[in-house]
Amino acid sequence: MPDVSAIAHTIHVAAAVIWVGGMFFAYLVLRPTLGALDPPQRLVLWDGVLARFFLWVWACVIGLLPTGYFMVFRNFGDFATAGIHVQIMHGTGLVMAVLFIILFSVPFQHFRVAVGKENWETAAKQLAFIRGIVGINLLLGLITIASAASG
User: How far apart are CA 72 and CA 52, in angstroms?
Assistant: First the structure.
């Protein structure tokens, strides 16, 4: 019989690595590299990259939340007896999830429509807004990782 706690922990850590690592790569590696492309090429490429990455982020959010709650209640009984590092992870994780849902539901949908209509000015504005939210989530993700590592 597999150890449910070990499975939950593995899913939780893998989801965090995929989400935060993907944001790190997109923000600090891919974005500066794509600056060499003309705006239409760059925006179409971002459309494809984000569409694929956001599917993975949905999977990560769906994996992180239940496994996190499972581990809190299994290991600590409730949040009151969990350490401050768990409280920080919970808070930053919830904010990250909410920001992602907003990002996906509004600016990303507007971005996709603008790219489809070849409205490059609107697409660029939406992408800049998306980049801001990703930057905030990346910072929150790194804080979450630091909290987990220090706990």
Answer: 31
